[in-house]
User: Which sequence fits this backbone?
């Protein structure tokens, strides 16, 4: 989202500096594993799967500062300057540009009908949709969907790996970060940029995408931030859930994490909850299920 | 629009089927349950919208949401879930205090979101039932992108209670559980520390 920043040299220098700090942090900044005898702490530590947490938190703070100083104000102006139909036009155009990458990934995942939708959308929107500014395809029930190589890797069986909070890019993991790289290479526009020496089109594109996305989420993110007691951890959780949902294309709600943990962690005592522990404590060891609760 | 229409047709279809088919061929209990669950969610949404949009301040919205949460959501269970493995470590007093502050926190955080309300409506897509558990799949009509909202409902003694809500696959229970686990582990595993932080947060919202 924040990739456009690298364009300006001053920021590039700054990110080089943060990179150096990061290396220093990485050397000293691995999370300390909890006392192995503390079961709950070990469970929380393993589930977070965030061994680089101190470094990640550092980049989270840096990104937050960049967001407050630059991205958020920009997104605010963008919101005021453009009426909703114009913003939709911008997003339609950006989505249309992404079609080749989405198509590749639809195909990689063996999603024939989704690939067909993407191809048809591209043809209709580029022509009838005036170069992509109008989502004409949706009038025919051909609705937009996203795909990326991170999701393709997941479909191919790759795990996500440890959590990463990348400078300027935000929440990620090794799978999704390398996926982004592959998408960049897969994108015809990347090559147009190189071959015709107009790489500014890609930079502009990242910038506009970032601002548009941020502008659409100003209120949501503000509320999330205001209500959260650990925004870093909230983002970490939301990112993972969002990616899992995207990988499943929003389907298969039965496999959603919460239902699994619901069943494992909480005995079926309905509305009644044994708040009074002393009476239950005298009984034989309760739910052995609980030890499996975080196995996923 | 399509979804509302297809929902309408489904409802009409169901009505027609139940009218023309001998009762013995149906599973009337299941059909009745699905209808009841749908009514339950509609009831929640109508009540929350009517009461919270009438409020003037965030504080008032929080105060009005609290009894609604207690009526429709299994708050003790949700609270317990969000504490994860730390639940068993808490003393009974801490557990009771946590359930209380967690309910207040939910009311404060989610109540204020109704200040942005501008006519969005829940449309039930389908209901999935398994024994005493069910999931009601809805979409929010009028909101950008018509987000999916899934409601997990558990039925005990004929009373329905929501145990989790997922918006576009993002689970309320899971998100808060992971957020709180991070807070507790950064505070040396003390549940009381989370309770204090939540109290401060509620006071600041």
Assistant:
């Amino acid at each position: 989202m924040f990739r456009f920043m690298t364009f300006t040299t001053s920021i590039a220098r700054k990110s080089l500096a943060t990179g150096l700090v990061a290396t220093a942090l990485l050397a000293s900044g691995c999370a300390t594993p909890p006392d192995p005898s503390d079961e709950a702490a070990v469970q929380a530590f393993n589930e977070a799967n965030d061994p680089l947490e101190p470094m990640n938190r550092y980049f989270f703070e840096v990104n937050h500062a960049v967001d407050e100083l630059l991205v958020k104000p920009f997104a605010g102006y963008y919101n005021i300057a453009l009426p909703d139909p114009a913003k939709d036009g911008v997003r339609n155009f950006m989505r249309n540009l992404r079609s080749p990458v989405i198509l590749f990934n639809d195909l990689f995942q063996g999603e024939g009908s989704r690939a067909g939708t993407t191809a048809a959308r591209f043809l209709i929107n580029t022509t009838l949709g005036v170069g992509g500014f109008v989502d004409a395809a949706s009038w025919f029930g051909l609705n937009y969907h996203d795909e990326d190589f991170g999701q393709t890797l997941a479909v191919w069986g790759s795990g996500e790996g440890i959590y990463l909070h990348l400078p300027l890019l935000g929440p990620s993991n090794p799978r999704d970060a390398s996926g982004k790289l592959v998408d960049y290479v897969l994108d015809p526009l990347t090559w147009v940029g190189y071959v015709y020496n107009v790489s500014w089109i890609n930079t502009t594109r990242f910038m506009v995408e970032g601002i548009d996305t941020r502008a659409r989420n100003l209120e949501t993110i503000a509320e999330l931030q205001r209500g959260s007691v650990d925004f870093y951890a909230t983002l970490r959780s939301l990112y993972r859930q969002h990616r899992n949902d995207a990988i499943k294309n929003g389907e298969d709600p039965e496999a959603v994490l919460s239902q699994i943990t619901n069943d494992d962690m909480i005995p079926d005592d309905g509305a009644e909850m044994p708040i009074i522990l002393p009476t239950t404590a005298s009984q034989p060891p309760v739910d052995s299920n609980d030890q499996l609760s975080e196995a996923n | 629009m399509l979804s509302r229409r297809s929902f309408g047709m489904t409802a009409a279809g169901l009505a027609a089927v139940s009218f023309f088919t001998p009762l013995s061929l149906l599973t009337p209990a299941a059909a009745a349950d699905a209808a009841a669950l749908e009514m339950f969610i509609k009831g929640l949404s109508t009540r929350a919208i009517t009461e919270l949009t009438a409020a003037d301040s965030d504080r008032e919205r929080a105060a009005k949401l609290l009894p609604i949460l207690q009526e429709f959501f299994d708050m003790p269970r949700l609270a317990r879930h969000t504490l994860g493995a730390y639940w068993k470590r808490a003393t009974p007093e801490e557990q009771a205090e946590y359930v209380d502050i967690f309910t207040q926190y939910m009311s404060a955080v989610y109540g204020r979101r109704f200040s942005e309300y501008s006519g969005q409506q829940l449309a039930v897509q389908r209901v999935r039932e398994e024994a005493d558990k069910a999931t009601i799949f809805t979409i929010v009509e009028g909101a950008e992108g018509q987000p999916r909202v899934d409601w997990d409902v558990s039925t005990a003694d004929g009373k329905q209670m929501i145990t989790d809500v997922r918006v576009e696959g993002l689970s309320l229970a899971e998100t808060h559980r992971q957020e709180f686990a991070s807070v507790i582990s950064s505070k040396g595993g003390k549940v009381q520390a989370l309770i204090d932080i939540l109290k401060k947060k509620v006071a600041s919202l």
Observations:
- The longest helix of chain B spans residues 28-53.
- Residues 1-26 of chain B have pLDDT under 50 and may be disordered.
- The CA atoms of residues 165 and 172 of chain B lie 6 Å apart.
- Chain B has seven helices and five strands.
